[in-house]
Each structure stands twice: as structure tokens, then as C-alpha cells.
Write a structure and sequence with these properties.
By secondary structure, the chain is α+β, with helices and mostly antiparallel strands. Helix content is 42%, strand content 16%. It contains 12 helices and 8 strands. Strands 1-2-8 form a 3-stranded antiparallel beta sheet. A 3-stranded antiparallel beta sheet has the order 3-6-7.
Length: 334
């Protein structure tokens, strides 16, 4: 029976693809990660990390409500303790580590209420010994009493998603449900099979979900093929506008491909295109801010993020943080 870490009876290799790794293998690696797993072992690690969490640790967050507040759009999420439990089960507490860097932005006007407030910005570098490291950022408004905790959790979970842990949660679209008087869901939605450890072990995947993806026959229709080709063309046209780093980074993080022609699901294509358009808007905002501050203002921002140049930015989160910092600097200079 699945346990809270998403594995049968707590067995960290319940869904292994056959590669030998886990606690013993991790402890055999040097703590600096120089003795890396083999390619097949890393694939095995990734397969284990991708397994969905046990439904019992999944919670639901209301992200949008109807005008009368009687219905709300909810999405599932897992507390960061579920992420640490999985990492501990697979690699032991000695097999991985994380490092946080905390920074507070200058005060600036918040758009939704015009309040002058700063942001707490947290970068998390997650390292799995023998596998590698990934980093990501999180942010929260400083007037939130738990701003540091919220930004830290967001950064940690985003960095874990780079290894595949919790990534399946990004496939969910909001589900509309009835809310009670405290704006809480009256009933918890059922998770699709691909979002459970059992369904995942049986080969169910997000692309096979009939709730949000077309049938096999529909994907092979002339109309669907034409639609995919059109979206691919739009994605490819973004390459020159975004630059190699950001373009490849978004393809990798959102679709796990290097070439948009490898994306078969049109909904994934559209999500990639949407993020690329958002990145393009971010770059335009960055240019506008640099026109006011001058290029020298960019140097300390990139240094704080450990990025050598804008061309090396590979995620929308990192770009967003750079833009916010530069816009604050531009406002203070004006």
C-alpha cells in the first residue's frame, strides 16, 4: 500500500526502472558530488523522483473565485515536507543538501493596491550528491508575516521540480468547485490516475489524461496536425527574440525537449508558447529599465544571481527577478 512518500510501504525503489542506486549508492559517493552516478543510474533516480506524491499529502489551493464567491478554481499542491520526505527516502538525509540565498528588494509600488512594499527574494540551490545541482528562485511580498518561509518553500520546490520531483503538479489546470462561507472547497476533487503512485506505476501519464488532453484519434486529425504545426512555427520564431539560453531553458523545463517539433501534445506546445511570450515581454521591460538606469545597473543584479550575462538566463523566474530589480532601480533614479 502506498505510503506518504509515494512508494509502496516506504520502499524508495518501488517504481525503479532497474538501475541500482539509493541510500547505499549515495553514501558511497563523495560528499562533494565529484563521483557521479552513471547515466543509467541518473535515469533511475529521475524516474523515482517523478513518481507522484501519495494523495494523502496533497492539498488544494483556491486560485480564483466567481463573482459571488460561491465557486472557486482550485489546484493541487504538496507541502515542502513531502519533497524532503521523498529525497530522504531515496538518498538519505546525507545524500542531498540545499543552500539558500536571501535578498530583499527596494520598496516599490504594488500594482494591485498601490501600496509601497518590498519583496523577499530567495534563491535555493538543491544538490543531490552523485547526480548534480539545480537552483531556482521564490518570492513573496515583505508585508506577509511569513514572507521568508513562503519564498523559501517556493524556491525549494521549484529547484526540486528541475530534477522531476513534483513536476507532474504543473500539468494541472484549475478545477471549479463549490466553496463554503470561508472560501474553502466543499468537496475535494478526485485526482486523475496519472497523478497517483499506482496509476503512474501502471504507465499513466499527464498526456493521457482525457480530462485535459485530446484522444489519440483527435491528435492525428488533419486539423490537429495543422494546429500543432502552426504553434511550433510560432515557438521557433521566438528563438531569435529570446536568445539561445532562455529559449532552450524554457523548452527544457516545460517540455523536456530541445526542439519544439518533438512536442506532440498541443496543450504543452501552447503552454511553452505562452511562457515564451511572457519572457519576450519581460525582455522588453528589461530594455526599458536599462534605458533609464544604464547597463552598469545590471552588473550587481546578475552577480547576486550568479549569472554571468543575460544570455545565460535560462528561466522565466530568474528573468522576472532581474526585471523587478532593474525597474526598482529605474524608479529610484527617476
Amino acid at each position: 500500500m502506498p505510503g506518504p512518500n509515494g512508494h509502496a510501504n516506504g520502499d524508495a525503489t518501488a517504481f525503479s526502472n532497474g538501475a541500482e542506486f539509493g541510500a547505499a549508492a549515495v553514501l558511497a559517493r563523495s560528499s562533494d558530488g565529484s563521483n557521479r552516478f552513471s547515466h543509467e543510474e541518473i535515469k533511475g533516480c529521475t524516474a523515482e523522483l517523478e513518481v507522484p506524491f501519495d494523495p494523502r499529502v496533497i492539498e488544494w489551493r483556491v486560485t480564483n473565485t466567481s463573482h459571488d464567491k460561491s465557486r472557486g478554481q482550485v489546484i493541487p499542491y504538496a507541502d515542502q515536507r513531502a519533497y524532503t520526505d521523498r529525497l530522504n527516502a531515496l538518498f538519505t538525509p546525507a545524500g542531498w543538501t540545499r543552500k539558500y540565498t536571501i535578498h530583499t528588494s527596494a520598496n516599490f509600488e504594488r500594482g494591485k493596491d498601490q501600496k509601497i512594499v518590498a519583496k523577499v527574494l530567495v534563491a535555493c540551490e538543491l544538490t543531490i550528491f552523485g547526480v548534480g545541482s539545480h537552483s531556482a528562485t521564490g518570492e513573496e511580498w515583505a508585508d506577509n508575516d511569513n514572507a521568508g518561509t513562503a519564498a523559501e518553500a517556493q524556491a525549494f520546490k521549484r529547484s526540486a521540480a528541475c530534477f522531476g520531483l513534483g513536476r507532474y503538479l504543473y500539468y494541472f489546470e484549475g478545477i471549479w468547485v463549490d466553496l463554503d462561507e470561508r472560501k474553502r472547497p466543499k468537496a475535494i476533487p478526485l485526482l486523475p490516475e496519472w497523478a497517483t503512485p499506482t496509476g503512474w506505476a501502471q504507465g499513466c501519464r499527464p498526456n493521457a489524461s482525457t480530462q485535459s488532453h485530446p484522444s489519440a484519434a483527435e491528435t492525428k486529425s488533419p486539423k490537429a496536425i495543422s494546429q500543432r504545426a502552426a504553434v511550433v512555427a510560432e515557438i521557433e520564431a521566438m528563438a531569435d527574440q529570446l536568445g539561445r539560453g532562455l529559449y532552450r531553458g524554457l523548452l527544457r523545463d516545460l517540455a523536456r525537449v530541445w526542439n519544439p517539433r518533438e512536442i506532440e501534445d498541443v496543450s504543452v506546445q501552447q503552454r511553452v508558447l505562452e511562457h515564451m511570450r511572457s519572457a519576450e515581454r519581460g525582455l522588453r521591460r528589461l530594455e526599458a529599465a536599462l534605458d533609464k538606469t544604464g547597463p552598469e545597473a545590471l552588473v550587481p543584479v546578475l552577480k547576486a544571481l550568479r549569472v554571468s550575462s543575460i544570455e545565460r538566463v535560462e528561466s522565466l523566474e530568474t528573468l522576472k527577478r532581474i526585471v523587478l530589480e532593474l525597474e526598482v532601480a529605474a524608479k529610484n533614479k527617476s
